[in-house]
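In this supplementary section we document a worked example of the pipeline. Step one takes a protein sequence of length 107 as its only input; no multiple sequence alignment statistics are reported here. Step two produces a three-dimensional model, which step three serialises into structure tokens for compact storage. The input and output of this example are shown verbatim.
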Amino acid sequence: EEDYGSEPANVKNPRDYFYLIVRGDSMEPRLHDGDIVMIRIQPDVLDGQIAAVLIGDEATLKRVYHIPNGVRLVSENAKYAPMVFSYPAQDSIRILGLAIAFSGAIV
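The serialised model returned by step three reads:
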């Protein structure tokens, strides 16, 4: 929720996007602490795509997999166990959008 200002992006509708700054190593080796990730706002993603997900009041980046009665969130870094949210606990999370680019590269 911290506002670090704005940066122009070459996108059709800038209001449909936001940036996240990566904190931690859960998405290494693809994403590193301090990387800037562009997120396209959308309520769902396809299985295996990296998404910004709100868990409680904290946003995280994870690969999303839909499972029967819930969602499984997977880190790139194998030292972190997948997080599984089954109904009704799945109601405590919300997909904010799809990671489409980071630090100048395509996700």
